[in-house]
Specification:
Blueprint lengths: L1 H20 L7 H8 L2 H10 L7 H24 L1
Helix pairs in contact: 1-2, 1-4
Length: 80
C-alpha cells in the first residue's frame, strides 16, 4: 500500500507540472523549476514511508511518466 501511495504521488504530482512545463522555453528557469519541483516532496514521502534508495529509479520513472502525460495533455488541449 505504501509503495502505491508513493508511486501515485510521483505520477500525479508531475502531471500538472508537465502541463505547465510544456508551455515554457526549454532550459529556462521555469522549465527547470517545473521539472524539479516535485522531487523534494517525493524524497520526503519516500523517507517517511520507510523506503531506502533502491526505490529511487522507480519513483524517477513515475515522475517522468507524469511529466510526459502532462505535456501530452497540454499539446492535446492546444490542438483542439
Amino acid at each position: 500500500m505504501n509503495l502505491t501511495i508513493l508511486l501515485l504521488f510521483a505520477i500525479l504530482s508531475n502531471i500538472p507540472l508537465g502541463y505547465l512545463r510544456e508551455g515554457v522555453p526549454k532550459k529556462s528557469v521555469r522549465w527547470f523549476i517545473y521539472i524539479h519541483l516535485s522531487i523534494p516532496f517525493i524524497i520526503l514521502l519516500r523517507t517517511q514511508l520507510g523506503f531506502d534508495w533502491h526505490i529511487i529509479p522507480v519513483t524517477i520513472g513515475c515522475a517522468i511518466v507524469g511529466q510526459l502525460f502532462g505535456g501530452y495533455l497540454k499539446r492535446k488541449s492546444q490542438a483542439a
